[in-house]
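Amino Acid Chain and Its Fold in Token Form
===========================================
Scope: a single protein chain, as residues and as a discrete description of its fold.
Amino acid sequence: labelled as such and written in the usual single-letter residue code.
Position: the record begins directly beneath this header, with no further notes in between.
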Amino acid sequence: MNRLSRLREGLAAHVENLVLFKITGSTHALARALIAEMDDEQQNLGSTLILADRQDGGEGRGDRRWESPAGGLYMSWLRSGLTAETIAQLPMLAAAAAHAAVTGIGVPDARIKWPNDILVDGRKLAGLLVFARHGETSWVTVGLGINLETAPIIDNGDALLATSVADHVAEGDADSWRHDIVCTFVTELDHSMADPKPTLEIWRSLLIQQPGDSITVRLASGEMVSGTLVDFSEEGFLRIRINGEERVITGGDIIDS
């Protein structure tokens, strides 16, 4: 059975449309373009998965570039018709699903760096990117990038060093890892949306940052915010106490914890 047939079989209960590329610019950009087209033309689209072995224009959070060499996994999962509550929970649910997928193939000691980076021994193994378009029909895409065979060298002094599945798992190869991760990720994500509460608790328990920790967050504006982590809101936002007052941080990068 070829790769496409195996994926179709493994994802039959969860994905209606499956697109594979050896190389593309960005699965995330393709998913967003598809969302815009379907929304503008008021057409419906079943659950869709776009996969690539390599990207030459991979995207990360905050308009950063995601290094996407051959020997990795780069995918975007696309759905319409989800509730606003489910969409708000997707960054957390997707992080837990990604964690289940990489530990399922044998990666040890993986943790989640808020909000949804997967780290092993302080090095970045995988990252997620969520985009939603609200309207008469709500659309969402969840992007996942994982280093499988090699860890790209990040030439940004502020960025985390990278690691790969091959650094931690002796058995298997990129093709088998890719298949198993994709099937587990999509299946776990689909199941968690039906009953999110247990998965949200798992997400909280897997976070490197925990209540009581002193943390520093760099916001998108460049502002640095330092304080004590009080807890996480229901939306997964940071609640930080700064000079006796609590502040809610909706996004940013934790650079010290």
About this structure: The mean pLDDT is 89. The CA atoms of residues 97 and 189 lie 6 Å apart. The two ends are 47 Å apart (CA to CA).
